[in-house]
């Protein structure tokens, strides 16, 4: 049976003369859509699971397909620009279940590149607020990743060259990690300086402060802790990259300690019920390496982070071991890992997957079968920001759109009859 979860429209402004409701809080006239954008106009037991609402913490999503975080490498002074407003505005106005901004670094010199977004000061948070306000005007739920690049920080953007490290603005001495283990032996990324316990404690506080800014200044609806892809938190999880002998290294319990302390700090800095997501690399994808992080490790970790207050585990894989096996680029390449994690947590926590989820009918079947609870999609949204609207058509679901997209659902006959029967 389909569970009816209420969806809310933006607050209406007052004191204007327009004959239709306008969004409150914007400094320009913007119409409120008829219904929550991307939600099914008629919700029945036969509505495809993809277009049934989903509750994540205190946040209700209109559907179960979201924009995966994708670094754009276009920040100026680590601040959002007009590009980010246009890019995320196009996405948030077309009905995805949620939009997640690219990772925002929690401290200076910790971005994946020197042109990453940052969230270590209030000015950066203020620059993000117009993006959030426009998303909310379109009824969209919007959040962002917070992270630390660790031993992969300050590299050149991949559009320039993968694993290049020659930007004159980068500072090698600021590249840190759990141990002095470079990502690729004899590669171009520098060998990181091992963090001290005192420095780890500082970074934990920086994650909490970034989350607090995201909520209190920018107004985001959720945050995701980036614990994947060989960046700082993920590199602590894996014995392949973590050779420490103190309380943050060695045993499984020690290697996950840093992540758990970050989760606690983030939770302490956001309101109760505020959604906190976690992205993990479910596997290093190198099971022949005895030190690799494996699916079994993620299955062990998942209930622990669920009990710690994570609302959704976002399962990706790889990017921590340069010798890892590259998965074939086929539909749902990380699904077996996500399915194992979902089985481990059951109803304690939501689980999503990412990675070549490019077929609407197949994704919907995964949702129907309970293999995953939510699907993150990346590059298809770059090709088609209205991907969810296209998928709704494919699944024969009529969904709400923003008012300015009225030609898609123009009621010409009804309009003409109204004109004939009504006198001004």
Automatic annotation (TrEMBL):
<dbReference type="GO" id="GO:0003959">
    <property type="term" value="F:NADPH dehydrogenase activity"/>
</dbReference>
<dbReference type="InterPro" id="IPR013785">
    <property type="entry name" value="Aldolase_TIM"/>
</dbReference>
<protein>
    <submittedName>
        <fullName>NADH:flavin oxidoreductase/12-oxophytodienoate reductase</fullName>
    </submittedName>
</protein>
<keyword id="KW-0521">NADP</keyword>
<feature type="domain" description="NADH:flavin oxidoreductase/NADH oxidase N-terminal">
    <location>
        <begin position="49"/>
        <end position="393"/>
    </location>
</feature>
<dbReference type="Pfam" id="PF00724">
    <property type="entry name" value="Oxidored_FMN"/>
</dbReference>
<keyword id="KW-0560">Oxidoreductase</keyword>
<dbReference type="GO" id="GO:0010181">
    <property type="term" value="F:FMN binding"/>
</dbReference>
<dbReference type="InterPro" id="IPR001155">
    <property type="entry name" value="OxRdtase_FMN_N"/>
</dbReference>
<keyword id="KW-0285">Flavoprotein</keyword>
<dbReference type="GO" id="GO:0050661">
    <property type="term" value="F:NADP binding"/>
</dbReference>
<dbReference type="InterPro" id="IPR044152">
    <property type="entry name" value="YqjM-like"/>
</dbReference>
<keyword id="KW-0288">FMN</keyword>
């Amino acid at each position: 049976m389909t569970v009816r979860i209420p969806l809310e429209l933006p607050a209406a402004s007052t004191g204007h003369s327009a004959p239709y409701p306008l969004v409150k809080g914007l400094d320009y006239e913007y119409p409120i859509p008829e219904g929550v954008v991307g939600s099914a106009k008629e919700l029945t037991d036969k509505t495809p699971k993809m277009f049934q609402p989903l509750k994540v913490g205190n946040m209700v999503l209109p559907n179960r397909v979201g924009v995966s975080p994708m670094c754009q490498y276009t920040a100026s002074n680590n601040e959002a620009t007009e590009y980010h407003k246009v890019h995320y505005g196009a996405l948030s106005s077309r009905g995805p279940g949620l939009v997640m901004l690219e990772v925002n670094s929690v401290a200076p010199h910790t971005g994946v590149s020197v042109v990453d977004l940052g969230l270590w000061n209030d000015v950066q948070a203020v620059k993000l607020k117009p993006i959030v306000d426009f998303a909310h005007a379109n009824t969209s739920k919007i959040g962002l990743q917070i992270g630390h690049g660790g031993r992969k920080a300050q590299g050149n953007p991949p559009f320039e060259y993968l694993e290049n490290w020659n930007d004159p603005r980068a500072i090698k001495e600021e590249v840190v990690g759990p141990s002095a283990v470079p990502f690729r032996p004899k590669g171009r990324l520098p060998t990181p300086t091992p963090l001290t316990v005192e420095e780890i404690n500082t970074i934990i506080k920086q994650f909490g402060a970034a989350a607090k800014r995201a909520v209190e200044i920018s107004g985001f609806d959720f945050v995701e802790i980036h614990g994947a892809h060989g960046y700082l938190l993920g590199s602590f999880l894996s014995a392949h990259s973590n050779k420490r002998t103190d309380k943050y290294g060695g045993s499984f319990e020690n290697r996950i300690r840093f992540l758990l302390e970050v989760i606690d700090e983030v939770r302490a800095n956001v309101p109760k019920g505020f959604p906190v997501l976690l992205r993990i690399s479910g596997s290093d994808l190198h099971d022949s390496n005895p030190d690799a992080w494996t699916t079994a490790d993620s299955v062990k970790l998942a209930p622990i982070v669920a009990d710690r207050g994570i609302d959704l585990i976002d399962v990706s894989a790889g990017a921590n071991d340069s010798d890892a096996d590259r998965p074939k680029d086929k539909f749902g390449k990380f699904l077996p890992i996500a399915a194992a994690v979902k089985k481990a947590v059951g109803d304690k926590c939501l689980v999503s997957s990412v990675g070549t989820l490019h077929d609407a009918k197949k994704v919907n079947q995964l949702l129907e079968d309970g293999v995953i609870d939510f699907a993150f999609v990346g590059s298809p949204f770059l090709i088609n920001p209205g991907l969810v609207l296209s998928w709704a058509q494919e699944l024969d679901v009529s969904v709400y759109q923003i008012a300015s997209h009225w030609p898609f659902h123009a009621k010409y006959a009804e309009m003409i009859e109204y004109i004939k029967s009504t006198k001004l």
